[in-house]
## 1
Amino acid sequence: MKKLFLLLTFLFSISCTQEEGCKDDTACNFDSSVELDANNLCIYAEENYDCDGFCLNDIDSDLVCDELEVGGCMDESACNFDSIATDNEGCEYALENYDCGNNCIVEIDCANVCGGDSWESDCGCVSIDNSGNDCDDCAGIPFGPNFMDECGVCDDNPDNDGYEDACGICNNNTEDDCPLIDVDGNVYKYIKIGDQLWMQENLKVTHYRNNDAIPTGFNREDWHSLEIGAYEIYNNDTSNYEIYGNLYNWYTVNDSRGICPEGWGVPEKDDWSILTAQYADTGHFKECTEGDCPNSEYWWPPNSGATNLSGFTGLPGGYRRDSSGPDFDHIGGAGYFWSSTRDDNIDAAWQQQLNFNIVNFNQLNSKGLIAGMSIRCIKD
């Protein structure tokens, strides 16, 4: 009996000294050397993370796992700031002198222009450069209908208004006097709107001004990793090129070799603001079928408010995305136009936009530098 007791005591002591641990090879603390499996001791990585706490997938190296990214605007000064966003995209900003609700936040002048310079004089509401005590028109008629055009003609007929074209010739025949030709030989129509000369067509050039070729032919993945100038045709369909021109990333806009014809450039953010101020709250910038506006061969209906009275002839060329979604999008529905002004708040640049269902230009907003968008050149 004593021997049996001693044997049992020996066996119990052996079992008590056997080491317990995790033998699940998917666990972070897997130990193949332990003798006893104790699953309750196993420790596992959180979903989407490895055992060291790093993301399994983090393509942009921002320490937020790709599966947990939330797209949205991360700029607190933007109208559509999203506090939970981790992947910055699509910030929208208020127009100068307006808040995000399109409410004027400065003084409205007598001409009902937010932040305008007009003032009440003896002649009524006049612009800031008017003396306020001379109400005669250019023909000497008090409050008359006549005005002086840039060519020195004083009358009340806007149809014969002359202006100085890009060659310094004062008339309306710009194409004959001074054709606008890019380095590839493409010829563009242009028009004066206010004090600015704008191209009436989207840029089509495939070379910089020094004849260096602009790269093209990138698939979606390669396009998104570019840090050099490049262009594509919407859906690689040459028929779209003939109508809408090319879609360029912003690195092309910013290239010192220049992309617009000599003496012309990509408009700055302020140039767009000046243009849109010419026809506030109208559709005068969008293309439409002459005599049948707002109907259009190119814009989706309803092409809201389109008259093209300005002659800008904005076209819905769509864009190549800088984020998730279809590679190319919105042809027929929207026109996206680069500015040369970078957004200092984020890795993006300012752009102006026209939409099929909005009367005027959208508020100036920014897009990522890799977005492919249209370019309209402006005379320097």
Note: Confidence is low (pLDDT under 50) at residues 1-8, 10-16.
## 2
Amino acid sequence: MSLIVGKDTRPELAVRSLLHKMGFRFRLHLKGLPGRADIVLPKYKTAIFVNGCFWHRHSACKDGRIPKSRVQFWERKLAANVRRDCETLKQLERLGLRALTLWECEIEKNLPAVRRKLHKQLRVTRPQKASEKIRDNTYTQV
């Protein structure tokens, strides 16, 4: 598992490129926020997670299934990932940030739909007030 890449994956790069083309500016992998979101748009108070279907058990995808070998190991490991994801989303919500999860399969199969999803999410999220900032890798209310 040491060969598993956690940053700069092909789906993540596709989303970053798409956001940039749409005119959005963002930060990557902020350490001060819960869960280390792949992409953070501080102005829109939004964190974007680009999840792999296997590692985060995407229920709508065939890749979200448990392998047939070492079933108990994989069930525990992947269930822990899903629990951690849920807790991270709750923590971000408590901080007043919106979280958007994009799945690897939807990015690879239908990028125009991902573009619409991003546009819809970020259009309804108003830019933040000057009194609320994400600065120096931490979220603070001034």
Note: The radius of gyration is 16 Å.
